[in-house]
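A common beginner's mistake is to predict each chain separately and then try to dock the pieces by hand. The better habit, illustrated here, is to supply every component at once so that their relative placement is modeled jointly.
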Amino acid sequence: MSKHPKIAVFGGGSWATAIVKMLCENLDEVGWYLRSQSAIDYIKENEHNPNYLSSAEFDVNKLLLSSDINETVSYADILIFAIPSAFIKTELDLITVDFSSKIIFSAIKGIIPESGLIVGEHFNQKLNIPFSNIGVISGPCHAEEVAMERLSYLTISCRDLDKAELMSNYLSSHYIKTKTSDDIIGIEYAAMLKNIFAIAAGIAHGLGYGDNFQAVLMSNSIREMKRFIKKRHKMKRNINNSAYLGDLLVTGYSIFSRNRMFGNMIGKGYTVKSAMMEMSMVAEGYYASKSAYLLNEENPANTPIINAVYAILYQNKNPKKIFKKLTELVD
Amino acid sequence: MSKHPKIAVFGGGSWATAIVKMLCENLDEVGWYLRSQSAIDYIKENEHNPNYLSSAEFDVNKLLLSSDINETVSYADILIFAIPSAFIKTELDLITVDFSSKIIFSAIKGIIPESGLIVGEHFNQKLNIPFSNIGVISGPCHAEEVAMERLSYLTISCRDLDKAELMSNYLSSHYIKTKTSDDIIGIEYAAMLKNIFAIAAGIAHGLGYGDNFQAVLMSNSIREMKRFIKKRHKMKRNINNSAYLGDLLVTGYSIFSRNRMFGNMIGKGYTVKSAMMEMSMVAEGYYASKSAYLLNEENPANTPIINAVYAILYQNKNPKKIFKKLTELVD
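With all components supplied together, the output reads:
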């Protein structure tokens, strides 16, 4: 890798846009792959993303925009993927150039449905990237607040801490503070699980449970997260660090969270299908709850909240009854 | 103690009123001391508290109301105190009858300013009640949601777990679930510290920090709470249980919390005095931050958030500057 590695971001959503903005604070050139050529044309002309985070303005001279994923992969030494997990496989399949020696950072929350793997494991097992070249960028961080340059903290993880440090330096600025970690597996699972717990929080709200119960639910969620992650990848970690508990709270307590909103509709009586249609998008926690449920069957941790969400979303169980049972299982 | 001990609640505020309501679900007779005779007359006539939690209705035939604290102390075997910590000493000083053999439960959050002790310690050290006869009732629990009969969870702690169990049974109902604990010291400190962290959350909000920072602040708050309590009373406890983390979250994330509201005004530029006058009441976290700061000087834990709140409230330091420094100390 050269002294000044080239960096590119893959994705056109709000989180991808936020990461490009962070990088532009420190770099003179940032590669940016967006699937949509019309979005690229719009950015070039209007200096902001037409669809997401439109308040984030760019110096377009710094951007190497492309709708050809192979072009952007070839350009960069470090690839940051920020494409929703439900669509990442489709995009990766488009890559024909060899990228096995590149450094991969994932800013994706969730499990890749096709492989049932978290992103780091997918890159490692399916694409032969060594774990020393795989990193994760995680919050707690609403992209919208990055656009407003409100102080936010990121945790950058990689088993090779030098690479985590390198990425930290590229992302840090007057409104972004970073810390590093070597727990990429645990942090990825946390990012995925928090969306399930946010759905649970939404369902509870939709069913009429109040703030007292929400606090109990969140307190049980972090304990459940700890148990689940420990079963998957045992190592010393403080589950109350920002990348785990902070990330759970920013999602679980945000009325803007799509996962919480989705749960809220389910709690209010929408079917899964009608809630999805109404939102015209799919909440990531929907996929995550299935993946987590299935993963947990192998070597089960006690996961009453995940089980409840799974039963409601995938087994057509009555939310009111399932939550009534859940209230006996939390404390 | 008889097979059917008599129970009385001391206090006229919303939390006292909520506890009387819970007890009335299970008992035929509940003693209730309120300082104000006119409030008592009002309750007798209108079946609800005139000043607090007026939506909670009572079967007044069950209530043994009195504005004579000695009368109520003499009546009961189990005394539940739910008077704000800033005023409890004044009330206790009115008691002339011997109550050293009674069981005391504290539903008070905070430190008794005159002694600098948490309530359990005060009853033990100043009033010679053995710890086996001292218990604590804690949330996460907004009294308002009890009035609405929204599902809430309480933790009842006592070193004599039989007494914790006894009180649990008196408080449990279709909307109240309980668990027991023997960590009365840790739980009391948690209840006190959460108010300081809620003030910090309010200050951050008032200064314009967003949800991303709030999540980091709460994640750091629970770690700080763990460190602080461990220094005061080391024992095995899961700080993520509802009585600690849940209680922190229900206060820190509630826009209705007086402590958060107080902090918010400070963050927006009010002086401490003008914020207090504007609220026409004193937030408990105001006293707690001084007590916690002084306590921590003896055998210090790392407490950047408590120190920041103390500096702002008691040393007249600039909130913006102090929080700017604080952002470097949290992660």
